[in-house]
Amino acid sequence: MSAASLKPFGRVLTAMVTPFTADGALDVPGAQQLATHLVDNGGCDGLVLSGTTGESPTTTDAEKLLLLHAVLEAVGDRATILAGVGTNDTAHTVRLAREAAQAGAHGLLVVTPYYSRPPQEGLIRHFQTVAEATDLPVMLYDIPARTGVALEGDTLVRLAEHPRIVAVKDAKGDLGAVSWTLGRCDLAYYCGEDVLNLPMISIGAVGVVSVVGHVVGTRLREMLDAYEKGDTAHAAAVHSGLLPVYTGTFRTQGVILTKATLTLLGLPGGPVRSPLVDATDEQILVLEEDLRAGGVSW
Predict the structure, then answer these.
(1) Between β-strands 80-84 and 138-142, what pairing exists: parallel, antiparallel or unpaired?
(2) Residue 1 pLDDT more than 80?
């Protein structure tokens, strides 16, 4: 069977925030509480740590490892835990990958190296080197709006030849490019742009790595279940009902309003780290309206 047909990391994964205390320190008990909520009550069968929403550029290597250990201890026996290890330095990424593997991570999220804007051949060598560093399966993370360079279709096809590169989190927003790649390799696609969750599933994606999964993971699962059963009308209705939540979460940088939402719901999140800034009172009022319009109550 292909990697895509196996859904290698599950279907509904949340790109989890990294909770901080009021003074900005890593909130380990809060991370465990949030992870437990998302897995046991939030409809998630997987969590992605230290990604974009996890504020990975502002957490130290030691904090990433401590967070990973804590979440594995809390839910690692009943959810797939992916460790975000991508940096813009291949050697550094390899070190993080090996540390994550030693800690017991179930897989790796590896973002396209940012700022340097390497050519496609450089990207291929980077990802292959990281994939060779451990025995863990790898999910590539294609998000050119943040990294400055996209993974081209031919590059993805070549990377799919590596036995441990099994999936891609796509935040490129190009459904045509996704269709092209899916027709030529067996990478399992996960939607990384919430508003496109259902469209991506409709062209062959196997699941989502979601930010709004912090709040509406059970409804994302309902949408995916309906689509897989052939009830596309119900899937579309769930999708439409979630649009205000998508809009509200991304009126500014996603983690800012996600942490504001978690505070409204009484869940751990805490402040963001500079250079991000916490949501203003005005932003929170609009967020509350968006969430209520999307059926979220507290």
Answers:
(1) unpaired
(2) no
Which of 141, 190, 227, 246 is the catalytic position?
141
**Structure token digits, residue 118:** 């390497």
Q: Which tokens go with 223? A: 């949408």
Q: Which of 64, 169, 172, 259 is catalytic?
A: 169
Largest CA distance in the chain: 51
**Residue 216 in 3-state DSSP?**
helix
CA angle 284/290/84 to nearest 5° reads 75
Tally of CB atoms within 10 A around 218: 14
Q: Is 259 a catalytic residue?
A: no
pLDDT in tens, 257-294: 999 999 999 999 999 999 999 999 999 999 999 999 99
Euclidean distance between the first and the last CA atom of the chain, given in angstroms as a whole number: 43
pTM of the model: 0.96
130, two tokens: 């990281």
| Percent with pLDDT over 70 in the chain | 98
Provide the pLDDT for residue 203.
Answer: 97
- The yes-or-no verdict on residue 135 having pLDDT over 50 is yes
Strands of the chain, DSSP E: 12-15, 46-49, 80-84, 107-111, 138-142, 165-170, 188-191, 207-210
Q: pLDDT tens across 144-174, in order? A: 999 999 999 999 999 999 999 999 999 999 9
CA distance 83 to 47: 9
Q: Is 190 a catalytic residue?
A: no
Q: How far apart are CA 46 and CA 253, in angstroms?
A: 23
Per-residue pLDDT, 138: 98
Residue 217 structure tokens: 């993971």
Task: Supply angle C-alpha 44, 98, 40, rounded to 5.
Answer: 15
Angle between helices 90-103 and 61-75 (to 10 degrees): 30
Supply φ then ψ for residue 191, to 5 degrees.
-75, 130
Residue found by looking up tokens 């990697």 in the block = 3
Q: Is the pLDDT of residue 4 over 50?
A: no
